[in-house]
C-alpha cells in the first residue's frame, strides 16, 4: 500500500499567507484505488514552492455515496467557492464517480489545520 499519485484539484485560493489549494491523492489498497483529498499552502510569489501540506486527508471515502458507485472509494475535489467577506469555502467534490457532494469550511480553519498538521 502507499500513495499511487497526487494530482490537481480546484483553482487556488489567494490568502495573505500564500495560495491555498485542495488536491487529490490516490492510495493503492488491497481493494483497489482510494481517492481522497487534502490541502496545501503554496508560496504567494513562487507558487511552485510548497510551504505546507496536510499530513492526512481532509476528506476520504466514508459515506455510502462515496464508497459505492461507478468507481468505488472516490472523493475528488472539483470546484471551490470562497466568500471574500467571511472566508467561508464551499468545496464541490465528486463521489464514487456517480454524484457530486458539497462540504464547507473556512480559510482560517484550513490554514490552522496546515499549521498544526503539515508534513513539511
Descriptive labels:
120 residues, mainly beta, three-stranded antiparallel sheet, 2 helices, 8 strands, 12% helix, 50% strand, globular
Protein architecture, described:
With 120 residues, the chain is mostly beta strands. The protein has helices spanning 64-67, 107-116, and strands at residues 2-7, 13-15, 18-29, 32-42, 50-53, 75-82, 88-95, 99-106. The strands form 2 sheets. Strands 1, 2, 3, 4 and 5 form a 5-stranded antiparallel β-sheet that branches. It has a 3-stranded antiparallel β-sheet with strand order 6-7-8. The longest helix is centred in the C-terminal third of the chain and has 10 residues, at 107-116. It is globular.
Instruction: Give the overall shape.
Output: globular
How far is it from the N-terminal to the C-terminal residue, by CA? Answer: 22 Å
* Tally of DSSP helical segments: 2
pLDDT averaged residue by residue: 95
**Roughly how much helix do the residues carry, as a percent range?**
10-25%
Beta content comes to over 45%
Q: Provide the succession of SSEs.
A: EEEEEHEEEH
**Major sheet summary line:** 5 strands, antiparallel
The oligomeric state is single chain
Uncertain runs are none
- Indicate the radius of gyration in whole angstroms: 14 Å
Total beta strand runs:
8
By secondary-structure content and strand pairing, the structural class works out as: mainly beta
Amino acid at each position: 500500500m502507499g500513495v499511487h499519485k497526487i494530482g490537481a484539484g480546484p483553482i487556488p485560493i489567494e490568502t495573505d499567507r500564500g495560495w491555498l489549494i485542495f488536491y487529490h491523492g490516490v492510495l493503492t489498497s488491497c481493494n483497489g484505488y482510494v481517492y481522497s483529498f487534502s490541502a496545501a499552502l503554496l508560496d504567494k510569489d513562487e507558487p511552485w514552492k510548497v510551504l505546507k501540506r496536510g499530513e492526512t486527508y481532509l476528506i476520504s471515502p466514508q459515506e455510502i455515496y462515496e464508497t459505492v458507485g461507478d468507481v468505488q472509494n472516490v472523493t475528488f475535489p472539483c470546484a471551490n467557492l470562497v466568500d471574500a467577506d467571511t472566508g467561508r469555502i464551499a468545496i464541490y467534490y465528486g463521489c464514487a464517480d456517480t454524484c457530486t457532494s458539497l462540504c464547507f469550511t473556512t480559510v482560517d480553519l484550513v490554514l490552522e489545520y496546515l499549521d498544526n498538521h503539515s508534513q513539511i
